[in-house]
């Protein structure tokens, strides 16, 4: 191990620079990871654009990190060992002290890092991580395959688990992008009747190949009418943050159906109270999950053959990867690889 490592640093809003940094020493309950791959997520673009160089030290972005442990800090639990391949997602490790942690709701911990935003992430050859945030990665998955599952995978897998639908029920996936393409695969493998909702025929073939039984093109069809014509959706998973596009779908939920919101947005949803009361429908949010749930997602992916569709870039081309992400010309996830 050398004395320095390369990292992409946010030096100004929207600007990434390749720098060399001294190799850090892990503190108590931390590990040092030699990063092998890091996914490029839409949230990264927001982290990089919103950085305040006057308010915080420059950050390394990236929160879909896979690599191998090369050093252990004091009091690191014995389940983690040097050479072990691990991952770190958006939630960087719970505190084990707050009220939510004491209830076992570790994904809702009030004191954990958001990797790549409040602590350094994985656009780097090395990274420090809290031991409570570590995820064991199965050997059946390549590091570049596993990385997007730590964010896009678990976000959609957990949303489907909590959506209330049972095998054979109609489940709709709104938005066939980085998250949606994982949701389609998981929904099909879970035994749901899957409707994909997108805009344009250019994505129709992909949606059906990924697992959708039917594709609804909002440029030529009315999605709520189409879903209601199929009996209403037991659940709708939305990966789209545009409230004006999401709100009309609430009226196409079956009785006791749920709208699961994955994309954060400041725009309020328009929800007629009558649609919630009559039929006992619901709207809930879902935020990734715990390290244990992330391991369940990885294991399910191995068991069922679910894999993200990826394109890889070397670390030094992180800015180019982000630009491609923002252009929308991606099918479906981008991953940075090291070395």
Written overview of the protein:
This protein has 339 residues and is an alpha/beta fold. The chain has 2 domains: 4-150 and 289-337, Quinone Oxidoreductase, Chain A, domain 1; 163-285, NAD(P)-binding Rossmann-like Domain (Rossmann fold), CATH 3.40.50. Helix content is 26%, strand content 27%. It is built from 10 helices and 15 strands. It has helices at residues 42-50, 99-102, 143-161, 180-189, 204-210, 223-229, 243-246, 273-277, 291-304, 318-327; strands at residues 4-12, 15-22, 30-40, 65-72, 85-88, 126-130, 135-136, 170-174, 193-198, 214-217, 233-238, 253-261, 282-285, 310-314, 333-337. Strand 1 and strand 2 (15-22) form a beta hairpin. Helix 3 crosses helix 4 (180-189) and helix 3 crosses helix 9 (291-304). The chain is globular, with a radius of gyration of 20 Å. The mean pLDDT is 95.
How would the blueprint of this fold be written?
Elements: E1 4-12, E2 15-22, E3 30-40, H1 42-50, E4 65-72, E5 85-88, H2 99-102, E6 126-130, E7 135-136, H3 143-161, E8 170-174, H4 180-189, E9 193-198, H5 204-210, E10 214-217, H6 223-229, E11 233-238, H7 243-246, E12 253-261, H8 273-277, E13 282-285, H9 291-304, E14 310-314, H10 318-327, E15 333-337
Parallel strand pairs: 8-9, 8-11, 9-10, 11-12, 12-13, 14-15
Antiparallel strand pairs: 1-2, 3-4, 3-6, 3-15, 4-5, 5-7
Report the mean per-residue pLDDT as an integer.
95
The number of distinct helices, counting runs of at least 4 residues, comes to 10
CATH topology (level 3) name of the largest domain: Quinone Oxidoreductase, Chain A, domain 1
Q: Please identify the structural class as seen in this structure.
A: alpha/beta
Q: Helix coverage percent of residues?
A: 25-40%
Q: How many domain regions?
A: 2
What string, H for helix and E for strand, traces the elements in order?
EEEHEEHEEHEHEHEHEHEHEHEHE
In CATH terms, the superfamily of the largest domain is: Medium-chain alcohol dehydrogenases, catalytic domain
Summarize the biggest pleated sheet. Answer: 7 strands, mixed
CATH 2nd-level architecture of the largest domain: Alpha-Beta Complex
Low-confidence parts lasting 5 or more residues at pLDDT below 50?
none
Tell me, briefly, the overall form: globular
- Distance between termini? 13 Å
Broad CATH class of the largest domain? Alpha Beta
Strand content: 25-35%
**Radius of gyration, whole Å:** 20 Å
- Let me know the number of strands: 15
């Amino acid at each position: 191990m050398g004395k320095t490592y390369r990292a992409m640093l946010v030096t100004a809003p929207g600007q990434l620079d390749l720098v060399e940094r001294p190799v850090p020493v892990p503190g108590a309950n931390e590990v040092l990871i030699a990063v092998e791959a890091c996914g490029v997520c839409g949230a990264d673009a927001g982290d990089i654009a919103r950085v305040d160089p006057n308010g915080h030290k420059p950050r390394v972005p990236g929160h879909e990190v896979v690599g191998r442990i090369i050093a252990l800090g004091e009091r690191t639990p014995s389940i983690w060992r040097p050479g072990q391949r691990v991952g770190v997602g958006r939630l960087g490790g719970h505190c084990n002290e707050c009220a939510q942690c004491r209830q076992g709701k570790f994904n809702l911990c009030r004191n954990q890092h958001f990797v790549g935003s409040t602590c350094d992430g994985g656009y780097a050859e090395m990274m420090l991580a809290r031991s409570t945030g570590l995820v064991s990665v199965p050997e059946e998955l390549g590091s570049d395959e596993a990385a997007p599952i730590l964010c896009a995978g678990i976000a959609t897998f957990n949303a489907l688990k909590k959506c209330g639908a049972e095998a054979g029920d109609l489940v709709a996936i709104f938005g066939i992008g980085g998250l949606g393409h994982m949701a389609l695969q998981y929904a099909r493998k879970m035994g749901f009747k899957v409707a994909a909702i997108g805009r344009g025929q250019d994505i129709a073939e992909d949606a059906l190949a990924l697992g959708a039984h039917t594709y609804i093109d909002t440029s030529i069809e009315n999605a709520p009418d189409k879903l209601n014509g199929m009996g209403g959706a037991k659940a709708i998973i939305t990966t789209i943050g545009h409230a004006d596009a999401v709100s009309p779908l609430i009226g196409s939920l079956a009785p006791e159906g749920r709208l699961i919101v994955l994309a954060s947005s400041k725009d309020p949803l328009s929800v007629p109270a009558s649609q919630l009361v009559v039929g006992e429908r619901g709207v809930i949010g879902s935020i990734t999950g715990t390290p244990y749930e992330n391991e369940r997602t990885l294991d399910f992916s191995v068991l069922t053959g679910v894999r993200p569709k990826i394109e890889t870039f070397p670390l030094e081309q992180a800015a180019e990867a982000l630009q491609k992400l923002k252009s929308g010309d991606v099918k479906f996830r981008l991953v940075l690889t090291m070395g």
